[in-house]
Amino acid sequence: MSRLTAVAYTFGVLFFLVSFAFSVFYGYKVMSHDLPEEVGNMEEYKYHFVLVPEELDNDYWRMVEKGAQEAAKDYGVLLEYAGPKQANIDEHLQTIEMSMAAKVDGIMTQGLSDEQFTPLINKVVERIPVITIDTDAANSRRMAYIGTDNYYSGYLAGKALIEDTKGQANVAIITGRFYANHQQLRVQGFQDAVKSEQGIKIITVEESEISRVRAAEKAYQILKDYPEVNAFYGTSALDGIGIAQVVDKYKKNDTIYIIGFDTLPETLDYISKGIIKATVAQEPYEMGYQSVQMMIGLIEGKTVPPIVHTNTRILRAADMPVSHLGGREAGY
Predict the structure, then answer these.
(1) 150-163: pLDDT as tens digits
(2) Separation of alpha carbons 271 and 285, rounded Å
């Protein structure tokens, strides 16, 4: 064996050992991620599911998790909430792969990009049922989807803007991720809703990277670069909040119209102050709760509809209830 061959062989062995150790470690992490302290015997549970969100520390996804955990409690399921702390598509995919390696009974995951998620989901469903939640991977072999009709929600936002601005607006769109399926659909639905309105012009579309700080930076830059902009549409839960922070800071409340997405407490606060004029209300709690019910149905051989669209509506200040949190109506 030549020296070069020996070196290459040694590196190959080392790479295998490191990869194997990482797989074992990560598989253990998936199996033990944030398990309740009282969990000592898996026989106490009928099934073991993993819910993989776009990012763990997102208030919207915490609502989804709350619904899923409540259903898990009701049906005797061990549910883990695992994934990237902040949006990272590679970590997201890795969590799905390691959940499969850990041989859980079911995986609920956001679908995001067709290019990256479809082949992985197709691989996973050969062994474990997969339900997409909030964002579909419609071209994959996932067993079912539960969540918003994202095109329709964008269309609703466009119609609301037409109504509220009387069909006269120069609009900037700030969207969470250019590559994310649900964000694309929310933009497309909005564009289709307003395209026949001569008085409405879409000036620019920018990306926030699912960050309220980045959304605020983009809003500030848009107002500098495009002084004619007098309306914003934010397509992710944090976009409207970031836009509102800038509009509020520069006292443009009376001249800038904002329509956002979701009903996070900050969003509702900005609506009550008149800074955000409207938001698209989804039902993240219901998505989480029903995804667990659907997964149990799939495992037990019951008929489960391939697509379940949860309710979507426009929420304005006049529509706000006394309490917007708690129970199965949290997050709408």
Answers:
(1) 999 999 999 999 99
(2) 21
| Angle ∠(35,38,44) on CA atoms, nearest 5 | 90
* Residue ranges per structural domain of the chain: 1-30, 44-148+284-311, 150-281
Q: Do domains 44-148+284-311 and 150-281 have the same CATH topology?
A: yes
pLDDT in tens, 168-211: 999 999 999 999 999 999 999 999 999 999 999 999 999 999 99
CA distances from residue 176 to 103, 111, 170, 173, 318 in whole angstroms, order as listed: 32, 15, 20, 10, 27
77, 100 Cβ separation under 8 angstroms: no
CATH number belonging to domain 150-281: 3.40.50.2300
Q: What angle do CA 167, 170, 176 make, to 5 degrees?
A: 110
Rounded distance between C-alpha atoms, residue 195 and residue 225, angstroms: 23
Kindly state the helix (H) or strand (E) to which residue 81 belongs, with its residue range.
strand 77-81
Residue 15 has pLDDT above 70, yes or no: no
Q: What is the pLDDT of residues 40-94, one digit of tens each?
A: 456 789 999 999 999 998 889 999 999 999 999 999 999 999 999 988 999 999 9
| Token pair for 186 | 């929310």
Classify each residue of 102-111 as buried b or exposed e, where b means 16 or more C-beta atoms within 10 Å of its C-beta: bebbbbbbbb
| pLDDT, position 310 | 97
Q: Please say whether the dihedral angle defined by the alpha carbons of residues 36, 40, 46 and 48, taken in this order, is positive or negative.
A: positive
Indicate the average pLDDT of the chain: 88
Q: What angle do CA 262, 267, 268 make, to 5 degrees?
A: 100
Which tokens in the block code for residue 308?
């379940």
Q: Does residue 301 have a pLDDT over 60?
A: yes
**For residue 310, which of 180, 78, 136 has the smallest C-alpha distance?**
136
Query: Which CATH code for domain 44-148+284-311?
Result: 3.40.50.2300
